[in-house]
Amino acid sequence: MENIVKQDKYYTYKDFVALNDGNQYELHNGKLFMMSGPLQKHSDISGEVFRQIANYLIDKPCNVNHAPFDVRLFEDTVYQPDVLVVCDQSKLDGKCCNGAPDFILEVLSDSTRVNDIVTKFNDYLKAGVREYWIIDPVSNILTAFRLIDKIYSANVYSENDIAPIQVLDGLEIDLVLVFKLQ
Fold it and tell me: Does pTM top 0.85 for this prediction?
């Protein structure tokens, strides 16, 4: 889903928003990565998680968004998570989320696997994302990372489990529904 495309210079957020070539990009620590559309399985998984969260958040103060929606973590880092939840409305400016969302989901693909597991994991931890989920659509496994005392604690769930989103009290994601589309 992503390929490094522009290494001619170090890009800042200002450079990033000035791009106007019709392509979707993420900004990884000053480097631009071109994004391509997800495969159907990827889209089905993120769409089902989004649906369950959106239904839960009806009449609640948090917002749920899905890619492509920019999350500006640092001056040189802008990601487009598959799904994100923001409860602090002051972080939303109508164009992006400025700072760490409360919850982020990334669905792995062949081209994003290393970035999602290593680069984004470390950046989300550094920025203070309270809960980071990684779903592997090949093995139908969810790894849920929860921020506790500035480190991530992991719980692993399979396709037959119910997984609680800790930052949204009372919300449990039915993974049978998430993976049934496969």
Answer: yes
